[in-house]
Amino acid sequence: MMLSAIFLHAMMALVVASQDTAEKKGKPNFIIIMTDDQDLHLNSLDYQPAVQKHFAEQGTFYQKHFVTMAQCCPSRVSLLTGMAGHNTNVTDVFPPDVLLDPYTYLYYNATLQRNQDPPRSFPGEYNTDIIKEKALGFLDDAAAADEPFFIGVMPIAPHTESPASSGGQAIPEFFPPIPAKRHENLFQGAKIPRTYSFNPDRPSGGSYVKLKPKMNDTVLEYNDEFYRLRLATLAAVDDIINEVFEKLEEHNLLDNTYVIYTTDNGFHMGQHRLDPGKACPYEEDVNVPMFIRGPNVPKGVTNNSTGNRCQSPSKSMRTRVLNT
Ligand SMILES: *[C@@H]1O[C@H](CO)[C@@H](O)[C@H](O)[C@H]1NC(C)=O
Ligand SMILES: *[C@@H]1O[C@H](CO)[C@@H](O)[C@H](O)[C@H]1NC(C)=O
Ligand SMILES: *[C@@H]1O[C@H](CO)[C@@H](O)[C@H](O)[C@H]1NC(C)=O
Ligand SMILES: *[C@@H]1O[C@H](CO)[C@@H](O)[C@H](O)[C@H]1NC(C)=O
Ligand SMILES: *[C@@H]1O[C@H](CO)[C@@H](O)[C@H](O)[C@H]1NC(C)=O
């Protein structure tokens, strides 16, 4: 059962490790930093020095980690429950959220709701930076409370900018993502890797890809700039990572905290001649970034065992977290 190995074992290792650590230091804390639509196969991680420094060097990279549904909500619910979409009943993208729809995918007008407070919008402020400030605030509160905690830090980067459609339909419009002002000129000249599956001369596969025309230079140029903008939005995620680790150190919490870095689904841009998007059963969409660092997790290791996130031990992790 290759497919189920990795998350199962990783989580069992965490639970066992956490039992060891628990005796010495109290129950461990968990932080999940989860991006939105981040690819593994288009090399976005190469543009994130903070991921390299804090996760690749200090934790384990599970390079054969797969999502069971390459679609935001079902994948997020699977990660938190350890159940597949057909068991959670979340099989589509109409969720409850902390960032509120239809404003979730706006880089400069986030709308958030905390507990029962009325929703609050932040026009003109950068979405990823707001998420960072909230996360750092929660970490201060958690440190002061001196109790084990679980924090999900889930920025929208590098998802598209998607205002609610002007026609009022459920399906929003999609535009390239918007980096923070301080990052907007980063990575000039970065191009989508021209891999074997990229805009191939001879198409293959099901009719929905086989019948697609080859992309012309205008489309390729648009997609390359779209790719650069995705990378630039991830620079603000690197700021989250750096500051979360600074905060953990400041509060002396680093030794007793597991930190996971992942995303909800991968992304394709021109592979198999597909326009930018996700939700297909191709490697680009389903094989995603996954790093874990924390007590007893090997450092600087790439683990090639195949796995996915729908494993019962993640339920036991959840139970453990909820019971702490
Ligand atoms: C890879 O991770 C799996 C799951 O945690 C573990 O069983 C296996 O021993 C690891 N492999 C190596 C080479 O460390
Ligand atoms: C999912 O829906 C089915 C059919 O309505 C229902 O029987 C089942 O209890 C639901 N499962 C969950 C986890 O809500
Ligand atoms: C920002 O979002 C709020 C909803 O929270 C909306 O009422 C407002 O019109 C939006 N402002 C801009 C500038 O888009
Ligand atoms: C390139 O392809 C796009 C999408 O198929 C099409 O709209 C556009 O007219 C084409 N441009 C040229 C210069 O052929
Ligand atoms: C995992 O695969 C990479 C190549 O992708 C290799 O460099 C590395 O040694 C492998 N790790 C293990 C533990 O086998």
From TrEMBL:
Region ranges (Disordered): 297-324
Span of the signal peptide: 1-17
Alphabetical list of SUPFAM superfamilies matching this protein: Alkaline phosphatase-like (SSF53649)
Pfam families, alphabetized: Sulfatase
GO molecular function terms attached to this record: glycosaminoglycan binding; N-acetylglucosamine-6-sulfatase activity
Biased composition (Polar residues): 301-324
Entry keyword annotation includes Coiled coil: no
Claim: Zinc is one of the keywords in the record: no
CDD domains: G6S (cd16147)
InterPro entries linked: Alkaline_phosphatase_core_sf, Sulfatase_N
Keywords: Signal
Domain Sulfatase N-terminal: 28-95, 106-300
PANTHER family: N-ACETYLGLUCOSAMINE-6-SULFATASE FAMILY MEMBER, SD21168P
UniProt family annotation: Belongs to the sulfatase family.
UniProt-recorded name of the protein: Sulfatase N-terminal domain-containing protein
